[in-house]
Every structure is written in structure tokens, then in C-alpha cells.
Protein: Toll-like receptor 2
Organism: Xiphophorus maculatus
Amino acid sequence: MKHLRILAPFLFLSLIRDQTANRDDGRPTCRRCDLHHSCNCSFGGFTHVPMVTDQALSLDLSFNNITMVTQDDLMGHSRLRALDLHGNRLAEIHPSAFDSLWSLEELDLSDNQLKFLNPKWFNKLEPLKHLNLINNPYSFLGSPSLFLGLSRLRRLMFGGPDLKELRREDLSGVTHLEELTVQANNLDRYDAGTFGDIWPLGHVTLSLHGPFLTNPALAAAMLNDVSYPETQLTLSDLCLAHNVSVQPFKDSINIIRYLSLRNVSLSDDACGSLLALLDGVPLRSLSLVGLTLTGEGRWVAAKQTDLSSMDEFFASDVIILDILKFAMDSEIQYLVQHQKKLSIINSKVFLLSCYITKKMVNTLYLDVSDNLLTDLTLSYMLCDNDETLQELRVLNMSGNLLKSLSTLSRLVTKLTKLTQLDVSRTSYRSMPTSCSWPSTLRYLNISRAKLTIVTPCLPKSLEVLDLSYNDLKEFVLTLPILRELHLSGNKFLRLPAGGPYPNLQTLMIQSNTLNMFSLSDLQSYRRLENLEAGHNKFVCSCGFVTFLRSQLTGSGDVKITDKHQTYVCDSPLYLQGEAVSHVSLSIIQCQPVLFVSVSCGVALLLGILVAGLLWRCHAFWFLKMTWAWLKATRSSQRRRRNRNTEESDPLLSFDAFVSYSEEDASWVENFLVPEMEEPSDSDSESPTSPLTLCLHKRDFLPGHWIMDNIMSAIERSRRTVFVLSENFVQSDWCRYELDFSHFWLFEAGGDAAILILLEPLSKDDVPKRFCKLRKLMSSTTYLEWPQEEERRPEFWRSLRNALRGDNEQEN
């Protein structure tokens, strides 16, 4: 992580270079595309349309400084389905700039500097479904119609502060829309019927601030063209003061079923006039968002207004300029007595009195979230009258200043049909040990409070319980019919035991401090189907990684429904930040005992095999002899140094060292020694001097190591005579002498050895480890002791010649 922080500035500069890198044609390049071929190039500082991959399906170029789109900028993007150019300084678009976008379905050109709209832009965009042209400085749409070829268009937004006229032919080609948004605050001309040919028309939003003030007839004509019972109508940016008429609604109000007013300012007179228009009309839903009330709430017409057909009333972000003078209870009570669904949200309501709630006899859904209600004012709202809100099914009081759960439970107990209660984002810190709740309560939301413990106060009738984002460390309750449990954002170290929740199907426990969970934890929940446990501090042990990866692949009975990337290792340190699905642990880390056991077993087996192989190849003999040779060599070197100090001691003292078996000693002593060491017969043609032989019985120094004696004898002799027989092969001492001679042969060469066979003996009778000797027997002529008496003189003559070979050459 430290290295990443150091490299971050360089990575950022590299990213900027990548985003603005220039091709050969001088155009910048944007490479911010994801795996779904969605390219987000917004806020990139581009002044021209950048180059992107031709595989892009979505291209977002919003909030740059692009001033024009040329003919070639979007060439080759035939797969592009969505193009967003809003928030630039776009003033010029080539007539054929979009011709290659054959698959385009969404085009956003809003918030630019387009003064003229060219129909040629859309000639080849037949698949287009969504088109946004809002907030450009054009004063008219242009002729011929922009939309003649757009038969699939379903969402259209146009207009702006400079739009002055709408002619009947401007929307030719538009047949039916799911959504129509028109900003016409400064519109001067509107041809009746311009919107009249569009049907069905799902949702219409009109901004008509100017027409309502200066040209009510124009506003009325527009309203009449878009008013259908099935159409949801939204009017925005209106300021209806006492001198501004609401007559534009006169003809259309009897047709409208769904009306929404956004960013509207109303005086008391305007409210009275509007209520008079709504009297008895079949309006089903009225929504007020961003409403500013400038009066005191003295709406006399409210008492006579019949709103019995209105099922839903929604008010949000209501501002009362003079709250101290506003008569909250006097008139509103007549407006809320018929609605089945009533919402007053984020409107700084601190009191909704019992006098008003008693009138809500038909209310099934009540939302007073994000207001200023307290435990005290809640007591006034849910008064002790048993007739208050008796039909209520859903109550939302989230985001208020509530602190006492016992007060809440006591007050809602009287709501005998209540099934859902939302008191999230409140100030509850504790929970009493016992509470009374409606037996019908199935859904309870106390998320984002400050609870540190839960008690049996919670009702056993719950099917859905949300306690997420509190300070809980454990959850031990018996809730037999609970189906969903939300515990995300707490401090749980482990999953709650599943036994008390036999019917639980969904468990959400993200963003806690879970270290791990196992199959047994999940199996404790009898019917658990869905689990979300990402963003925890997982310890990535071998067992947990193996188990979780199997769950992520869907092989378990429980389905993990959140993103796999949210399951990240927190420890060990070398895996911190790594997604569990990408972690791969070795057998050394996972099974150290098994690994050591197997390794030792394998090593032992290999050791046995190697030892057997070495024994088979006589490696131990070579090692033993090498050690003996080295040791004897050091002794020999000492003897040589001693000889160098004594000039009278010759280096070579014998003509031959005789190696023989003790069983063959009689032949050596009776035949070999007399023939070699005694002078030859006088009748010999060429008498020779006697030879000196080295015999271990006679010439080895007593008290010295046997190896030193053998080594010294071989070194001090010109030749080594091997008297070979079956006895020789079986003799241990002969093998030692043969072993050392074998080493000596490597240094001195083959001529240093003389072989005498006392009896027939093949090379196969010699041990295989004496490879040099076996080779000598194959390549060197050896002497055989003749059994016939007459052949023996020739044998002795050949042996003498072999032993004197060096001397004769020297002479």
C-alpha cells in the first residue's frame, strides 16, 4: 500500500495522458471504458469529441468544453446506443454528424449553445427512443419537423428560456410518448392542437411560469392538449399570487386524474381558487413538491371543497413563510379526511394534532418522515382516542426526533390494523425489556438509530426486521415467523445463531466486523435462501476461503446475492484487500502437518531408493576408498617430505609389490620369490641381476596403519603384481590392496599392473566396481601360470622382462 501511495501521482498523470493522448489526426483519446463497453468521458476537459473504441455501446461526454461535432467525429460507431453531450458549449453540429449511429437509442444534447436545430441530424436515427434538447438558446424547433422519421421516439424533452413559439407542425411525426417535458416559461405563441395528436401520453411535465402570468389562454390551450385521464401531469415553476388567475385549469381540471405541482408558490387567494376548482372533480392524486405557502392558511373554500375522489395526497419540501401565523389545524383538517395515502415529508412539521388525525378515517398509508416530531408531539398525533387512524396499515415516522421506544410502542398499540412501521433515522439509544405492539405488526424498521442492545421488547409477530446501521454486537431473540433480518452496519463478530429464526429466508449482515462464517453457521438456519455479508473484515484461512468460494459459485444451498467483489480479505496482511474469489492458497499454508508428513514420507522413500541405487552402483565403496585414498595420500606426502630430507633414501625401493591371497602364499614363497630374487642359473644365455619384491609378511612396517603400509608399498614399487585366483577374489586384504591399486592405476596408467593368473579366471569373477582392472583384463595381456613343467621357464622369462621394462628403457 505504501508503494501505491508513492506511485499514485504518477499513475494519475499517466491516466490524464491516456485520456488526452493525441492520435495522428490530432484528436484526443478517451480510454475510460469498462467491460460492458460503457465509456465515461465526462469532466475530461475535452474541447473536441475524443476517439473511443468502436465497440462502445454507451458514450458519456457530458461536462466538457466541446464546441462542435464534425462529420467524422462519430464515424464508425454503428454499435453505439447512448450518446450524452449535455453540459458542453456545443454550438455547431454537422448535418451528417450522427448518420453512422444506426443503433442509437438515446441522445442528450441539453444544456448547450445550439441556436438552431437541424432536422438532418435525426434523418438516420430511426431507432431513437429518448431525445433531450432542453436548455439550448433556440427560439423555435424549425421546419420541417425534427421528428418526422422518429417513429420509435418515446421520451422527448425540449425547450428553454429562449423558446418563443410552438407551431402545430413542429411535432409532426411524434405519435405517442411515455414522457414529454417542455420548458416554455417564456413562450409567446402556441398553436392549439400542437400536442393534440400525441396519444397515448404517459407523463407530461410543463414549465409555464410566463404564460400563467401573462397569457392564461396560451397556458389553457397547452393544458387542454395534454389532459387525459391516463396522463400524469406535472406543472413546475409557477407563482400563483392573489392577482394571478388559476383559470387555465378551468377546462382541463375535470379530465386530469393525476396532478403534480413542483416549485410552486401559492398565496391564500390562489389556494382558495385552486380548491374551488378541485371541488368535486375526479382527481385521484395530488402531489406538491417544493411548495411555498406565502399566506396564513385562511382557506375559507377548504370547508366546502369535496375531495372525496382523491385517494392520494403527497406534499414534500413544503415551506411556510410565516409559520407563527399559519393556521395549521383550522383548514387542513378538511383536506385530509378522505385520502387513503397521505404523505407530508420534509416540511418541518412539529405538530400534527389529534384534531386532524381524527379526521383521517380513510387513511391506510401515512408518511410524516423527515419532520420535527418528538415523543411529546407524537402523543398529540396518536391521541388516546380509540377511533384515531383505525384503518392505518403503514406508518412512516423516520427521520424525526424520537427517543423513547416505550412511548412509541404504547401509542401505536391502539392502531389495531398496523402492519408496517418505519422509525428509522431516529434517536433511539435503548430498548425497554418489554413492550406492547399491535398483533398485526409484520414489518419494523429501526435502522440508522443508536441502539446498542436488543431486548424482548420487539414483537414476535414480525416477518421483516431492519436493525441495520446501529451499534449492535449481538442479536439473541426468538422470532418464530421472521423471514427477513437486516443487520448491516453494526459490530457483529459472527453470524447470529439460526435456531431462534426457523423461518428466516433472507439475512443481510454487510459492513460489520465478521471474521468468517462456516457451513455449520448457515445450516443452523433451516430455511435460509439469501445472504449478503460483504464488506466485512474476513480472516482468509484455508477453510474459510475454500468454503466461501464454493458458496460464491452457487454450489451451496444459500445464495449469496451481493457482489462477489465485496468479499475481501482483511488478514493475513499479505492478502489484505484481495477479493476472496481471487485468493489461491498453497497446500503448505493450508495443510502444514499433512505437507510435512507427506514430504518426510517422500524424502524417506527417495532416500531408500537413492541408497539402494548407490549400493547397487558401489557408490559407498567409492566414497570409502576415496576417503582412505585421501588419508593415505596425506601420509604418503609426509613420507616424501621426510625422504627429501634424507638424500640416501631412494624413492623407489622395490621392483614390484606382490598382492596375493594368504592361501596362495606357498606358491609365492616357493616359486615366485626364489625365481625373482635369486640370480638366474649359470647356464642361462644372459644372466640377470635379482629383483626385489615387496611382500606384506616380510616388508610391512609393524605398528603402522595397514592402509599406510599398503599405500607405501604401492608407491615405493615400480610395478604391482596381482596373483589372481579364487582365493584372491575372496580375500579381504587382497581387496584392500586391489582397491588401492585400482586408484593408483588411474594415476600411473595401465603399465603399472601385472596380472598373474594361477588358475583359470575370467574378468566376470572380478567385482564390477574394479572397472579399471576389468578393463585391463580385457585389454592387457596377462600371464597364466602353466601347469606343465616345460612351459614354466618361458613364464619366468616373460615375468622378468615385464618387471624390468622401465629399467631397460632407461638403459
Summary: The radius of gyration is 54 Å. The chain has 21 helices and 34 strands. Confidence is low (pLDDT under 50) at residues 1-24, 646-650. The chain has three domains: 38-347, 394-593, 656-680+688-796.
